[in-house]
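Running this now, will post back.
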Amino acid sequence: MSGGAMNEMRALPQPTAWAGELIELTWTLHRLALAGFAQGLSLMAPGRESGESATAPVAAEAAEARAGAAPPAAEYSYTVSPEMVAAFADATGDCNPLHFDAAFAATTRFGRPIAHGMLTLGLVSTSLWRHFGNGVIYLGQDSRFVRPVFVGDTVTVRIAPRPAVGGRTITDIACASGGRPVLVGHATIMLDLPPAAGPGVAA
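Update: finished.
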């Protein structure tokens, strides 16, 4: 190897020095990226008030949920008609004759057609929208079917929210027909409401 080449090699930074600088630069970029990601998450967090007008009209339920207070309980009633059951079957493909065929249903323990269990649970979803407004996001449900809902029954859904924690609200659910429970449990929701969002449908 020539003397010039040897001199050039001696002039290069030692591996330990430039490797340490590279690691430090990598960690600096990594920290900056994490900081930017965290800031983005904070802007996306539910219930964030930045940028909202102090006088912007916000639904009472949304304001209370964002503040951590429990909105008041409410009840919503629905009559389960044959048309509603047929529409649910068309949408889901669940065409069990237990829901339509009176002769078949008479041979079962129920004695007459019953509504789909998930139709009753769908009324819970509707009630959550009516109660909290257009920005409600349904995250989960823990429920138990207690009794069947017969076609023609009127189902009353009671929504009883607990105080919000970490942007999430657990809402106790009780559905009844004829004064007897048909579904009990609770739902977990979050609110993602624009400043002017209001209740979806008046109670």
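Confidence is low (pLDDT under 50) at residues 5-20, 25-59. More later if anyone needs it.
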